[in-house]
Amino acid sequence: MKVQIIVDSTVDMPEHSRSACRVVPLTVHFGEESFIDGVTLNKQDFYRRLAEGGALPTTSQATPAAFQSVFDEVTRAGDSAVVITLASQFSGTYQSACIAAEEYENIYVVDSRTAAIGSGILAEYALRCAALLEKKREDVRLFALLDTLEYLKRGGRISKTVAFAGGLLNIKPLITVEDGEVLVVGKARGAKQGMALLTEKLLSDGGINFDLPILLGYSGTDASNLEKYRADSREIWQGRGDTLPSTLLCSVIGTHTGPGDIFASCRENTEPSGASGTPKA
Length: 281
What we know:
Elements: E1 3-8, H1 15-18, E2 22-24, E3 27-30, E4 33-36, H2 43-51, E5 58-60, H3 64-76, E6 80-85, H4 93-101, E7 107-111, H5 117-136, E8 140-145, H6 150-154, H7 160-168, E9 171-178, E10 181-189, H8 191-204, E11 216-218, H9 224-232, H10 234-237, E12 246-248, H11 251-257, E13 262-267
Parallel strand pairs: 1-2, 1-6, 6-7, 11-12
Antiparallel strand pairs: 3-4, 3-5, 8-9, 8-13, 9-10, 11-13
Helix pairs in contact: 3-4
């Protein structure tokens, strides 16, 4: 999955940058003739026709359907997108993009509030940010200490026998996500040993990446496990900020992992993780 940049045809930028974007064209009308901007009428031909004189050409905004067609391609690829348009004060193109985006997740529309190379500069910056984001995701390694194997069993991720044995032994599995796949990387007996294992993995797999935002996560209505972990692992966070933010995990993740879990992340280690097991989320 990657972040694609979508612009309308008024966003002026060098061709090498434009080729990295998806372009939704506006329409140019010379009298009774209509042309798709940049598709059936290139810039050179436009200015030649303009120099010939005659009635001033008119323009039409990009339609919601035109944006929808591009959004469909983005979602089929499993990607998200940022859309940058001509200022909404100049054209209804921004509104068309917003109307089309209502039907999609992970499509974000930005009103450039400028035009031509002004919006082109924003698009160039968006391309750089998207490239940086794709690079930064390689620096993130997520770990989760699960309170129980029960929810993995219910979801068909592990067998009933394994879940039953784990329950008898009070096993706390430690999982990670690698290239979109959930892997079990360790097991501990009891919460105390589990929290120690989580800290050990955070440090041994490259340490905390303090160049990125720091965030802990928890599941369930009781945050006591998280607070216990925050206190027990304080030595790895001390001196790195006044607060250590945390968030309650969403219902989708909680469906598969259950309550009482602790989530933390570190920088990605390029060495083999030695993970075992491949339950999928």
